[in-house]
Amino acid sequence: MEIFKSIFAIIAGYLLGSIPFGLIMGKMGYGIDIREFGSGNVGATNVFRVLGTLPGVLVLVGDFLKGALSLLLTSYLFPNAPTLLGSHEQVVLTDAIVVVLAGMAAILGHSWSIYLKFSGGKGVATGAGVLTVLAPNVTGILFLIWLLIVMATRYVSLASITTAFILPLLMLYFQAGNYPYILFSILATIVIVYKHKANIKRLLAGEELKFGISFPGKERKVMERIAVIGAGSWGTAISTLLAKKGFSVTLWARDSDLAEAMQNLRRNPRYLPELLLPKNLYITGDLSKALSKVEIVTLAVPSHAMRSIIRMLKDELKSNILIVSLTKGIEVDTLMRMSEIIQGELSSTFQVNIGVLSGPNHAEEVAQEIPTATVVSAFDKGLALKLQEVFMTPYFRVYTNPDVVGVELGGATKNVIAIAVGISDGLGYGDNTKASLMTRGLAEMTRLGVTLGARSLTFAGLSGVGDLIATCTSRHSRNRAVGEKLGRGMSLSQILRETTMVAEGIRTAKAVYQLAQKYGVDMPITKSVVEVIYFGKDPHDCVVELMSRGPTEEIKERGI
Fold first, then answer.
1. What are the tens digits of pLDDT across the range 23-39?
2. Nearest CA to 299 among 254, 269, 267?
3. How far is CA 317 from CA 293, 310, 323, 350, 387, in A?
4. How far is it, in rounded angstroms, from Cα 489 to Cα 484?
5. Cβ–Cβ under 8 Å, residues 218 and 154
6. Which amino acids are annotated catalytic?
7. How confident is the model at residue 427 (pLDDT cuts 50, 70, 90)?
8. Model confidence over 103-139: pLDDT tens digits?
9. Helices marked H in 112-244 — which ranges?
10. Coil, strand, or helix at residue 233?
């Protein structure tokens, strides 16, 4: 009889521990699969990040209670074990062993749930529930240590790993001689630390995400509403990224037919057609609907359309709305950067609300969740940190840089150099030529940037050399592809007839060259690109002129 009771208690503990409250909360409360968002974990921490404070608390309580209930049930069946319900005087070793096995079964159930095809959370909350019934004094001490570490570092994983290692030491002290409980503490530590192995790697690499706990005066919103303006490949990829993080995202497409097709098909038939759009991503061709009650507006439109788009949406924007430009380009008529256009079209109160995002970010790779890094810059440091948190994911790492001018110019000017590299490829030149063009092109980019007030080091970062490398070498690069076709003898009009994709470098080349002339900056590669694109100059002649220039130093005192 006792053996059947033991088996029942252990199986019940596992099945209780297997209940995926995080998945249930996402499905029933928000219509999403929490495993498709954030870290992909069903535990309370990921629910906090994706769905917000209240859902996170409810899942935390549920995960805690399933651990506690599994032990309370077992203690009822086997009362001669030192638990909250059991005896501390007439302890029977077999009862203590069964209680421990049921507790471990609950933790294993949470970590490898039968309902989730043996995947699951990390066992911390469920383990805390088990431990509260076994040794409430130990639980109290560990909770205080955990809370102090989280408050000091904002790393939930570090707090959980640290307290897991401390657990056996406290059990040795408070439960001396109770070997089943000490064994439980060791096994629980092994499971919890094993489930945190990815977190440990990120902590050691300095890449672990911090947790935005709601301390007094810093209330966290449940789900922020974000509008992404522009349904091209980059707008589609970034809106998908944000939706998968759990934000309420609306993607606006200028073409209402495209918007309707995307909403119905859950794919973008023109750009990134293989990408399945999340259920919580709403697509519309109605700008008013797209901007309704949003807190962040993300602009992913061609540079030549930025001003007209801002004029269309300016009346819908409240003064507290945050605006993020993802566009890399310079307006030809005014020679203004994108943030300058936004600021100029809106009231001066919007300046502290404007940020930019730039880097080696091909939409095709971001859509496939291939590891990528980028940089955000803003006039206000707090906004930059806010945007860093909004866009950061386990596969999309975001850095901050206060140099708005440099970040924008790097993203714009590298497209011109990529066309030059493409021309070189089209002419059949080799790696030496490509490397030379990229290096001297970076020098041109930096010279112009420093002259316009940027920091030279910015061009050594992601929005400078990082984006330059990606754009000059990738098969996804539209600008390099345009250059290659020019090098093969095609005219610009022929190239434009063949593609619906926007190559920003075509227009930007003219704007960059005009800036160079206006401020007296030497940019021979840019000049050659402009001559090939707009004046039909033979690329071979441009190469001869570039190689025949007078001798000079590679690095000068001012700039490069």
1. 998 888 777 778 876 66
2. 254
3. 10, 10, 10, 10, 18
4. 9
5. no
6. 414
7. very high
8. 999 999 999 999 998 889 999 999 999 999 888 999 9
9. 124-134, 136-153, 156-174, 179-195, 197-205, 233-244
10. helix
